[in-house]
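Troubleshooting: if your tokenizer reports a length mismatch, compare your output against this known-good record of 265 residues.
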Amino acid sequence: SELGAGWRGLRQLLENTTTVTRTTTRLADENFLCGEYRTPCEIVAKVPSGPDLWLSKQFSYGSDRSYSHRERGYFNRTACERDQPWMQIEYEGIWQGAGVAEAAEPTSLASIDVKSVWMTVWHREVCLEQVDGGLRCMQTQTAIKELCPCNGWDWAPEMNRTDPRKRNVGMFCMPEAQCPVIHQLYHHHIHYLSYRADAKRVCILETSTDKTRGWAGFDKEPECYSKVVPALCRGQIAGALGLRPGLPVALISVALASLAWLASQ
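Known-good structure output:
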């Protein structure tokens, strides 16, 4: 499909050949990475001739080396502010520090080994009011089935129930062809990141499943996230420096929403 070809092209684009040299001459920001991070509702894309796509994100680095990440997708601002998502992707794993890279400004390195991925769907379809007052209903179940057939397992919530449908991708969607986007980008992959952090926030310069890219993003504009509360992995907080803000991008949510919109036509 065109969407599948797009994802393959995206992965090829990410496979650069750059090098990185690690050093231990400066202490890494590893002790500052721990904490819980949340982003406010933000618009991340727009479906052609369709609705704006909104996202909220929450992730955490634990002092026990645990890592968790959750993204929720919405079709308008009101739904996002009320936390009424149509879908959610969450994954868990183990993180570890990897020292400091030599660069114009020393940059810390880390990796995340993703162990499990879950996808949750709240609605079989989502209906939005149009400019003319009419309703247009997007087939969210159809969109997810297109990307993740998952051996025929139903993604839609059970009829006459408000509970969402939540499935473990590794358990229900094997082999990889049953949910290629999730498997190729998340499940059982190690993500490499270069970052700078303090007790209040982290600024990620690059993250990738390709080590040479994830550990060599020193010329990138950082994406910065504030902690819910200041935190360290170990010790007491003595102070913190300010870092620049940035914006994340949620490609899978955009892809699924685009499919749902097209399915409604």
